Every structure is written in structure tokens, then in C-alpha cells.
Amino acid sequence: MNHPAPAVSRARRNALVKLGSLALAGTGVGLLGAPAIVRAAGDKVTFKYPLNPTFDLIYLAEDLGYFEGTNTRPNYIGRVSSPQIIPLTSIGEIDFGSRMVPLVISAVAAGGDIKVVAAGGKTLEEAPHMKYFVRKDSGISKPKDLEGKTIGFNSYGACAEFVTKTWLRQQGVDVNKVSFVVIPDDKAEQTLVSGNTDLAIIHAPFSGRADHAPELTRLWSDYDLDKGLGGMAPYSAHGKFIREHPEAVRDVVTAIAKAANWVNANPEEARKLVSKRINLQLEFVDRYAYVEDLVITEPPIQYYIDVLEREGKLAKGKVSTKDIYTNEFNPYAKAA
After folding, report:
1. Which CATH class is domain 10-122+231-335?
2. What is the Cα–Cα distance from 289 to 181, expressed in whole angstroms?
3. Which of 58, 71, 85, 113 has the fewest beta carbons under 10 Å from its own?
4. Is pLDDT at 128 greater than 80 in this prediction?
5. Element (H, E) at 191
6. Is the confidence at residue 49, as pLDDT, over 80?
7. Residues contacting 111, CB < 8 A, separation 6+
8. 12-22 per-position pLDDT tens digit
């Protein structure tokens, strides 16, 4: 049964306009070109999702057949730049998005209609979420060496920024003396090799390619920095899609939870599927590890609420963990 969307206040309308402006910058996906709200294709409900070269449970769930037997299917809308995924999800330009928790917190605080519905990747010592590389001839070996240098990372407002800045401060680094520049993960290695950055923070699967680059050396991973507390990369959904298609949300969460458990049990097979999908040489594909059953827990969310408040990006008490997530659509959470 469909429920009418709640009335949108003037303040919230302004917030959504702001989010929309952010979302539309730097991507070819625009409001005027968006598909109609009706998402039924025959007897199937489709959800709009980016088609990016990355290690992603939506793609793996489809490859593994976990959407079979459901009435739900992904509708890939083409590549969407990483910084735009959560803003676009928060205004309904795409229905699901997978990006880090602080981006979702910021979107909710700005009035975005978005909710984390499944946990995602997790950091292990042998399977970190992101790795830190420098050139072998850079002279950089410790955190303090980064003062006066340039760090390349995939976006502001996410794990690469906040985990790194938090750790650098803990190591006595003046973060104001470090420059940050946005470089997509699949371009970060070459940008570092060419000398345009001094350190590159690269996420899996592309971090594996940097590990094999003869000019580079790895200094740290996010596991070294915080033992993985900041490494959960969840899946979020647009609020209207959740309200209008709760069964489809349940189908998606169930499918990606199955895929996550399969990846954890079959990491090498998963690397082969990702290698084929994104056309990256197998030896260069770093593995991913996922939260068991994709059940969301509160510590990784509270970690980023605290970080955002400390960084002055979020008013203290403006959002709570309960505002950010729900396990309602995860059958494994109910069983637990």
C-alpha cells in the first residue's frame, strides 16, 4: 500500500534544493532527465543505481542470481561520481547508494530524505578499506612528513578525509599545513606516480594495483589508523522509495546480505567476478570484507557523529544514531 509523502516545509525544500545543487555538479545525471517516479517494469520494480567500476554488492548479487525469485531488479543509470552518490540518493535521483556514513549523516542533517538500510564493507587487517601510498623517493615515512604536502583522496566529507585528519591530529600533525585534493580512486595511483600528489589514499579494489606499482610503497591502511572503526561502508536508500516499495527494499537488502556473506566465504572467487566486471587485471584487484549479514550496529555511526561534531561540521545533538539507520528490512537482523 502506498503512503502519501509528508508535506515538505519551506526549510526542508531549501535544504533539498541545496542538496540537489550539490548532487548535480560534476555528473551527467540531472533532475530534468530523471526517469519518471513510476518504477514498475512489467511485474518488476526497478531501482535506479549507479554503474561504477568498483567492488559492489549490487553487481555481485545480480551476478550470483540473488535477485532471481524476487520482483526487484537494478536499473543502472550509468557512472555517477563518488561525491555525488549520497546527495543524489537523498533527493531521489537514484534510489540506493553505497557511500560512507558521514556523508549520510550530513545529508540527514541538511534535510535529505535518506536512510542507511544495510551495513556494507568492513576493515580487516588483511582486507583494509583504504590504503595510504607514497612514492618510494618521496622522503615521506611518518605522519609529520606530510606537513606541506598534498594528499589525494576520493572525496571530501567521507572516510578518507575524517579518518585521516583524526589520526593525523593524534600524531601531532598540523592538518592546516596539509593540502587535500579530490582524485577518483581509479586515477589516484597515476596521479601520485606523476608527482601531482605526495600521498594517495586509495580504496579497494584499485588499491591492489597501487600495491604492485614499482614506483610506490604503502605506508599504512585504515586498519593501522583506527582498527576499522571508521571503515563501514553502508547501503542507503531514498526515503520515498522506502515508503513506496518496502518489499523491494527488503529484496535488495536480502540479496546484498547474501552476496556479502558469499564474498566473505569466497574472497578469491569474488575477486575474479570483480576483475571481469571492471576489466581490471586479477592480481590488481584488492579483496573486500563485509559486515556479517549486513546487520547495522551503532558504534560506526556514532563514531562519525562524534567526528563531525568535533570537526565543526555538525551541530552537537542535531542528529542521533537512530535518525541514520534501520535494520527493519534485513531478515538476518530480525532472526538475530
Report:
1. alpha beta
2. 27
3. 71
4. yes
5. helix 185-193
6. yes
7. 11, 12, 14, 15, 16, 19
8. 434 443 444 43
CA pair distance 119, 96, nearest whole angstrom: 13
For the entire predicted model, the pTM comes to: 0.81
Which residue type does 329 have?
F
Residue 265, all three cell numbers: 566465504
**In degrees, to the nearest 5, what angle opens at C-alpha 160 toward C-alphas 145 and 218?**
50
Mean pLDDT throughout 35-43?
46
- Rounded to whole angstroms, how far apart are CA atoms 174 and 147? 7
- Residue type for position 38: V
Contact 61, 52 (CB under 8 A): no
The whole-angstrom separation of Cα 316 and Cα 191 is 37
DSSP letter (8 states) at residue 144: G
In the numeric block, which cell numbers belong to residue 77?
543509470
**Domains of the chain, residue spans:** 10-122+231-335, 130-226
- Decide: 330 and 257 in contact? Cβ < 8 Å: yes
The predicted pLDDT at position 42 comes to 55
The CATH label, of 3.20.20.70, 3.40.350.10, 3.40.50.150, 3.40.190.10, for the domain at 130-226 is: 3.40.190.10
| 226, 163 Cβ separation under 8 angstroms | yes
* pLDDT, tens only, 227-274: 888 878 899 999 999 999 999 999 999 999 999 999 999 999 999 999
pLDDT-above-90 percentage for the chain: 76
One-letter amino acid at 61 equals A
Res. 106: pLDDT tops 80: yes
Residue type, 112: G
| Residue among 83, 76, 78, 82 at smallest CA distance from 62 | 76
Q: What is the mean pLDDT of residues 300-315?
A: 94
